[in-house]
Amino acid sequence: MRHDKRFLELHGNQYRVKVKVPAALREVVGKAHLKVPLHTDSLAKANMLKWSVVSDLKEQLTKAQRVAEAKAKGGDPVIVEAMEWREAIAKGDEVADDILLPERAEEIEKRHGTEVAVAFVKVASGRATPIQPLEPAWLAEANYAGRTETSRKQAVRVLLEWCRASSIPETVEAVDRKTAGRFISEVFIAKNADPATANKLITGLSAFWKWMEKRGHAVAGNPWERQSLKLKKVKTEEGEEAKRPFTNDEITKILAAAKGVLGDLCRLGALSGMRIGEMAELRVRNVKEGTIRVGQGKTEAATRDVPIHPDVAALVAARCEGKEADAYLFHELPDQQNAARPRGAPASQAFTRLLRELKLEDRIPGRRQARIDFHSFRRWFMRRARNALEKGATGFTAWTLAEVAGHSNESGPLALTMGRYPGASRIEAKRACVEAVQLPKPKVDETSS
């Protein structure tokens, strides 16, 4: 072993450790070999000293591998590397803090510029907080539903991509109100983006910053608040809003044409006000004692008990018969491979095709979305329940309707008096609300309802 020269080379008359950097990591490391002088001309002594150095250098390559993987996923490799330095410094590595960090900062400045190098040092020394590493903890705590989580991830991705393209450090501290405004101007306003789409992403970033404030990663003062774009009010020539409920005539035509699982979804949706996504996720265990327990939704209010309308009681019973408790009520709907695609998506698409076949599509010129879709069943249900109240129906109130629909009582009038303080409505009141809605008889004109 005295003559072993693995990982060693003579530099002048002294030995140094030399470790080859894999080709895939050379862009991250910035060199083809890592070299550390041992300050000895004795091969025997060099062999005794080299192994701890080799171990340290291989650990550096392991960290570089993580940086490369983060870069492949779209992360900022400089910030990822800075977090590795931050971890080493936090463990008391004085050499990394006092000697190696300044050297690495100089290399980064030569390759990426002063601003990036400054951000690297701030993150590594704990004086700045990178955005991307905080995202998983936020999403885990928020526990968003599939599509909402995907939208939140997209918001962070769009912001970080813009920061990268604009040479803005991907740190919490770098995104102040002025920077947020510039982001919105360049990414949304300048590109004439749809305000509703833009606001969805801005809302996601605002939620992220609120969480960071709560957890101490950001100072008070959310840069995304009051930054939303003004929505364009799109109306018909008659001044009606873009989205609307079905008419009674449309309901009759649709229910007569919809067959199988789609027909069952349409009928249950019309007589419960449930969203198609909620119905698609229902399991047999959710049906109990004449009610359907709607599970987790977009808000806390979305979790609720909806009485089963007498006109769909047989339908629900048939879909429960002979199934295990965990079986889906609408078992025909296939599971989706993409978490961002809801289980009810195939039924929603089939419903759109049905509307086209029935020539019921209602579009405003220049508007991408039609005025009616499956959600119009929900709008129709709420309108019918409201109309019943106006005609003197008893046993339930407008606040009961909000609970049945899964809307918050605390965001409307008398929020404390009728929303928070009394608690949930009695199931009898909810049942009265549901049963006040009746399917139209064929050929009954909407104006007579």
Automatic annotation (TrEMBL):
The keyword DNA-binding applies. One of its GO terms (molecular function) is DNA binding. Pfam families: DUF6538, Phage_integrase. One of its GO terms (biological process) is DNA recombination. Keywords: DNA integration, DNA recombination, DNA-binding. Gene3D superfamilies: 1.10.150.130, Intergrase catalytic core. Residues 241-435 form the Tyr recombinase domain. It comes from the Bacteria. InterPro entries: DNA_brk_join_enz, DUF6538, Integrase-like_cat_sf, Integrase_catalytic, Integrase_recombinase_N, Tyrosine_recombinase_XerCD. Belongs to the 'phage' integrase family. This is Tyrosine-type recombinase/integrase. It comes from Xanthobacter dioxanivorans.
